[in-house]
Amino acid sequence: MAGLGFHDILRSGSSVGSHREAGTCKPDWSDLLYHQAQAGAQAHRSQLTHSPGYNSTAGSASPAPARDPAPRPAAARPVSGADKYLTVLLDDFIVQDRDADDPDEQMLDSLDSDQSRHTDTCQTLSTSHATTTTSSLDGKGDDALDTDPDLNGLSKSNRLREKNKQAQRRHRQKEKELKYEHDSHMKTLSTTLNELVVHNTKLRSRNHVLECALSLKREREKPSPTQTLENTEPIYVPSKGWEGFTPNAALLLTVREQPFLLTQAHLKNMQQQDFCSLWKAFVEGMAQCLVDSAGPNGARAKLRIEELKRELCSFCAIISLLRPALMRRSMGSNMEACNSRGSQNGPEYWQNLEMSLQLTERQTQELLQTRQIYLEGLGKLLRERADLYAVFQSQQIVCFESHLPSQGFARTFDAAEQLSENLREEQRIWTQMIAVTFRRTLQSWQLATMLVQAWPFAPDVLAVINCAADHVGA
């Protein structure tokens, strides 16, 4: 009787009615209807109790009453109008029950549909994860997943997901290791490249020194005859500690093969060609010493460079004091051609020269301080010179009387003396920059390298200092 519905009850009732008409069975209709309803309710409760979504705490049913083993026999009675009316009512009720929605059945249907959708979703996810993680498992199949102790107790889809995460972590770790190796290799290559650049600069500097020494040796001048010191005016040479100048009869120079004396008369009568010739002798001697310093007589060559450095600094100090215009004109021109055309070398030339000097950090700082002192003094002098130029331009010519022009002449004369003093001060700070760089900051071999590589021009000290400042970002 489990699972009987109203249609079954109706069929049972119709069969009973037919038997009644035939006279074979005469049960009571009301009793039969009662027992059929009790059996249907009991079957419905049993189905709800054993269903997967049944909540025992919320929907527990009381035990069904005991059923009678068999319906009670009833006395036969004829089919009346009430029975037919009841049959019609049952038909209407059955139709309404078929169209109506039972809440319990809706719940069971929804639970069944949710369970089926969940099963389909799990199968789809398992298939997709198994497909996407095949390449990331490095050829490991289900056996590797089953034997992994870290993945025990997980479903197949979760194990695949966890295995994929582990593979991704290993891949990221490998990428980090490769990136670190590449960075280390790049740093090593960069360091090697910088060392090669410095070594190449040294080789180019040495090659230039050798070429210059060879060319100067071929053009070596004949030694000049020895001069006498009778009736010569003393010249002021720098003292031993370079605190000042001391009077001396002459300056002894050993830059040429035969030593000679440089007197004040020679300095006053010196021409630009003579200055360039003497400068060339210094460059030639230092170039030869640089070549010899790499050989077995290196110590002797270094001492010779020290002597030439001392003589060159003394000569520059004396000529700057007696003939400032000659010194500035000669050092700003092409000494090999003895013309006034200045150096046409670009910044790259002086940058290579600065790199060949291999300046230390202390030397660079001293050069920057020297440049700052020179530029501050030069700026002050140029502002004063602009005021003096205004005085010269204010001078007017008056033809009627001479008093006003006389006053203008006096003002102009004073301005000229101030301008002369201004020019001497500029020469002093420029000579100071050259002397500090040559004598104090640079070592002997650095000064020799700078003079040889700058030939046929004098080294532009300010350009070299600016290159050093750019090199350190100052």
From TrEMBL:
One of its GO terms (molecular function) is DNA-binding transcription factor activity. Residues 44-57 have a biased composition (Polar residues). InterPro entries: bZIP (IPR004827). CDD domains: bZIP (cd14686). Residues 159-174 form the BZIP domain. Residues 40-79, 97-181 are annotated as: Disordered. Residues 121-136 have a biased composition (Low complexity). This is BZIP domain-containing protein. It comes from Apatococcus lobatus.
